[in-house]
Amino acid sequence: MSFDFDAVIVGAGAAGLMAAIRAGERGRRVLLLEKGKKPGVKILMSGGTRCNITHDCERRGIIEAFGPNGKFLHSALAQLGPRETVQFFEDEGVATKIEDTGKVFPVSDRAVDVLDALLRRLGRSGAKLALTEPVREIAANPDGGFRVVTQARTITAEKVLVTTGGRSFPGCGTTGDGYGFAAAFGHTIRAQRPALVPLTVQPAWVGELRGITLADPNLKVIDADDKVLASRRGSMLFAHFGLTGPAPLDVSRAVSGHPNPATLTLEVDLLPGESEQSFDEFVRVETAANGKQLLAGVLSTKLPRRVADQIVVLCGLQPTRTAAALSKPDRQKIVAATKRLRLPLRGTLGFEKAEVTAGGVSLDEVDSRTMQSKKQPGLYFAGEVLDLDGWIGGYNFQSAWSTGWLAGREL
Q: Where does 5-194+355-410 sit in CATH, by number?
């Protein structure tokens, strides 16, 4: 039977571009369909328009970042791991650098350089790219292959790959279209929730600290029974709505996935490198030795001054309180507020501000060795449409590059 194309790929994001490149370079007749005016819009937005390409770690480090679902990535990472990804872009003229956090960026700090490299390689691969052509329906033909219906035409293809992304940043066009395509073939769709999304909190004073960054606090999301649902250590930024930055974003999926986020508490250890005992001793010694100083001034040798001021107030003390004659109970309050600061949560900023989507096409129904559907031969999935979401730091891009590359081998 003859088809218009050997493979149609739906969605020209990170996974779709990578898959089209590989399939095209294998000599396959490939059509990459994108409903938006531009390909790779999320690539351009990511990393503050710098594009965090991947993370500087071994393959197992990528797998760990995805929790229990990470094992699904073994085969994809064997085809294209972090090292191979860096080499891919270096070969296309994108020099890369590793930042202190382990994040890998283009030396130019320009996401557009990453996308341009992909589009150059795509052009050489022979794959065709069609923009502003949303897919309406994907259906299996009774005598083999698929029928892909767009607003402009009906296309036949031997194989179809869905790389439509999730529901995060819907302004980019990622509005969950792929879930409907998958469900039409009997796939289970895991409930979606925002991940890598800023947290909103109940205390109003948090907003007064907006703009202040803490370099390395430890965060725990705790439920009403004091069970720890998630924990992460890393940078945190106070914002007018609550908290953002790597550590809050990394624990956010536990908040967005909870049926009643307002019952949750974020416990923050402002000084995780120091034990409660040693910090208590520091406060005792320093307040005794510097009695004329403001108490907040003593604490500001360990914390940003405005945070120190707030800790004093939270402990029921006057902002003008000097360090002299600090009682043991007050000292213990200071230690508890610094090492176990409890912030009642409201929730998150939702899909509008989420970097990735948790949930999606069930991994149990996709062959991790090929990315092919176990429900429908010839149908494939890659990227964020799958039930895969990892930590911040380039891990999610690596999942998209790798699953797309593996799928492209199979198309």
A: 3.50.50.60
